[in-house]
Structure formats: structure tokens, C-alpha cells
Amino acid sequence: MTFNPTSIWEELSTNTQKLTKGYETLQNIKEVEVAVTPKELVWQRDKVKLYHYIRETPAKCAIPVLVSFAMLNRHDVLDLQPDRSLMKKLLELGLDIYIMDWGYPTQADKYLTIEDYIDGYMNDAVDFIRKKHKVAKIHKQGICQAGTYSMIYASRYPEKLQSLTTYVAPYDFGEGDNMLYKWARYIDVDTMVDSVGTISGEMIDSAFSMLKPSMNIAKYIGVLDTLEDEEKLMNFLRMEQWKADLPAISGEMYRKYIKDLFRDNKLIKGKFELGGEIVNLKNMTVPFLNVYATHDTIIPNESTKAVMAKLGTKDKTEIPFPGGHIGVFVGSRSQKDLAPAVAKWTIEKSK
Question: Can you tell me the distance from the alpha carbon of 85 to that of 76, in angstroms, rounded to the nearest whole number?
């Protein structure tokens, strides 16, 4: 191996200039804002809040939509910035949207269970919206972990839902080639929960980071080429701000989530219990839209698609999104193709 001193010097000089320009760009950035689409707080139970997005025009869909995001991250990625906001686009396309904010659990919440979140908070929010709009049923949307929870909810309370849409949600945790699923089988979750109570977001994030360790290095190399462009730099900073906002998770909920779903795969096997009752996916009889990302490295497509054969509903549709797990919400195709398809399907199911 030979080294060319001139090339090394030129590379160092170029990167120094980029860093200097980046410093100047950062000096002009006063604040990094995410989730700026206007919404108002309409309901709260403990730390869980329900927001209603403010519409400037009447909705095309008379039946409201309740969206729930995974508890492992914040829902802000659904409204990252005006031109990369799934929520804003769905609003523009005519939907009337509510979104759940799971809040930031503390040690006081370590005993909250999956039952508390699904039969409690989620069910109470659904009932609040039904009562407010004087409708018997609403549309439900769930993302990733909250997609799984929404499916469980729909199997227990199908009479309260007009339809269910889930995005990149895991259902079959027996997928053998997925590293995340493999790790979960060997986690000593009882010791973790008994020792720390609530599971920190940083701990969970470190596990996800190890799925593709090079990404945390590569992103900072890549950002060097965007430091002079304030708009591109803001895109990077908004995503980094969202990724760094990591709520803790209730220990008891996490214990059952890992043991019953990830480890024992009970939901797809028809053995998962909630509140002492078996969750039967055949009871999920409402229209179902299943969105999965064809290049998802977190949730395998097979895990998401496996639920289709287990459901009681005959009205079920799949949308394969050509992108990754996060691209479903922030990619350009999300705005151009996915949001219109979801909105059209939801409006049709309102009739």
C-alpha cells in the first residue's frame, strides 16, 4: 500500500473547508423544529395524551382516524417537516386525524402492562373520539409496535372500528433470519425489568444500532457533503433530533412484549392472552390495509405479511412500499404514492 501525500493533503484541506462552511451554516440555524403541523390537545389520561390535527377545510372523510405510533420512539417522525409529513399529507387528502402521544414513562409507570395500554389508554381514546363525533366506529391506524397493538385491539373490539391500517408492523416473530428476533430470544428480560423497572430508550436504541453498526459512522461522513446547504443540513438535523428523543418503556409491558410476542410468538399462534382472554385474530373482521416496506431491515416482510391468512376479515389489502422502515413516513414516495393510496382506501371504507 502506498500513500500519496499530495492527495492526503488535498483531502484534509477539502474537509477542513467543508467543516468551516458547516460551522457558518450552523451559526444561522436558531432552532430545529419537528412536528409543526398544528394540533390541539383534546384528551389526557395519566401521561398519555390525544391530539387532534387542526383542519382548515372540512374533511372528505366523515369518520375520524386515530393514529398510534410505536412506543420505542416518538410519533414526530410522522410529521418531521412540512414537505416530509405523512400526517400533513393525509390531512390535505381529506382525513380527520387524531394522534396518540404515549408520553415519557418514568419509574412511577414501571408496572403498566400491555393491558393498560391496549384495553386502557387505547380503548379510552377510541371511546372519546366516538363520543365526540357521535359515531359508532372510527378508523384506526398503527405503526410498527403500535400496529401490532392495534391489531390486538381490533381483534378484541371490532365493533368499534370502521377499518384498520397498519404500517411496517410485526406479527410473526418466528422469522429465523432476522437478527432482532434472534436477539430477543436470548434477552434475560426478567432480570432487566426486575433490576431497572423502566427500560431506557437509550438501551433499546443501542440494540437497534447494532443491526447496522456502520450507519452511525457513515451518516457523519455523508453529512460532510451537505454542510454548505442549510436546507439539506436541516433535514439531517431534524432526523437526528427525532432519533435522539427516546422515551423509556414500562417494564411490565416490555416483559410481556418480549416474552409472549418476540420469544414465544404467541399472537400468530393463537395463544396470546390479554386480560386473561385469548386474542383470536379471526375476530378481526373489519377492513384491513397492510403496508410493508420492501427494503425493511428491521421488520421482515414475511413477519408483516403472515397475518393476512390468520384474520377473520375477507376485506384485506396489501401495499408493498418500495423503501425502508423509516422511508414509509419520510420518503418522497410516501408523499407521492403511499399517502394518496391510504387516504383513498380509508375514504372508500367510510361509505
Answer: 9
Quote the CA–CA distance of 332 and 309 in Å, as a whole number: 31
Structural domain contains residue 3: no
Work out the pLDDT band at 332, boundaries 50, 70, 90.
confident
For the chain, the domain total comes to: 1
d(CA 160, CA 209): 38
Contact 247, 104 (CB under 8 A): yes
- Inside any domain, residue 46: yes
Residue 144 catalytic? Answer: yes
**Phi and psi angles of residue 265, each rounded to the nearest 5 degrees, phi first:** 55, 40
Which residue type sits at 52?
H
Q: Where are the alpha helices (DSSP H) in the chain?
A: 5-27, 86-92, 114-115, 123-133, 145-156, 179-186, 189-196, 201-209, 215-223, 230-244, 251-256, 266-269, 301-305, 327-330, 332-333, 339-348
User: And the C-alpha cell for 327?
Assistant: 422511508
Nearest to 51 by CA among 31, 75, 16: 75
Domain extent for 316? 34-348
DSSP secondary-structure letter at 255?
A: H
- Number of other residues whose CB lies within 10 A of the CB of residue 133: 14
Return phi, psi of residue 22, to 5°: -65, -40
Q: Give the pLDDT score at 23.
A: 61
Structure-block grid coordinates of residue 245: 428523543
Q: Is the pLDDT confidence value at 175 over 70?
A: no
Region 294-304: what's the mean pLDDT?
92
pTM for this entry: 0.90
What separation in angstroms does the CA of 64 have from each of 27, 69, 226? Answer: 43, 17, 40
What is the grid cell recorded at 317?
389489502
Active-site choice (71, 129, 144, 189): 144
Is 13 inside a domain boundary? no
Domain assignment present for 254: yes
